[in-house]
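S1.2 Input.
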Amino acid sequence: MRDYIIREATPQDVDGARVVMLDAVYRDFGTGYVPRWHADIIDPVAYYMTPPRHTLLVAVEGRDGTVAATAALDARGPAHPPNPLWLAERFPSGETAQLRRVYVRPEHRRRGLARRLVGELLEFARGDGGYRSVYLHTHPHSPGAMGLWQSLGKMLCDEREDVPGGGTGAVHFEIPFA
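S1.3 Output.
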């Protein structure tokens, strides 16, 4: 069994975290890098490591220091467009902890890393004191994503069914934040 260390990303982790994230958007989403959607992947320091209410976590393999998984949180609510207006209104920026970039490399999946990372993100959000809700969106074809988020939160909107034309195809969740 492999041992993993979960921690806030350090400058030394940035390149490894970026590789995990880019691999996911190419392999799992099939979109590749799209600047308007993925600028945070290219510059995670500016998006997640510098702002005081944001964080980037990594799961690092204990024996060799490889970044095996990532998870980020920021205070930006879902934007409209492309998300439905009612979601943007329900989850305003500044009051919403948005979970982002929860990705696990394929060879490290099924070890509970995503769930552990999300638990740490929720602790970070609680410690901040300024968040009133936790939101995320996922893509249903991302391996393991739907099962994880359905076990942790409440599905609010499946754009494939609830938005005329299918919207972006994302599925939106709220995670309990008591």
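S1.4 Remarks. The two ends are 33 Å apart (CA to CA).
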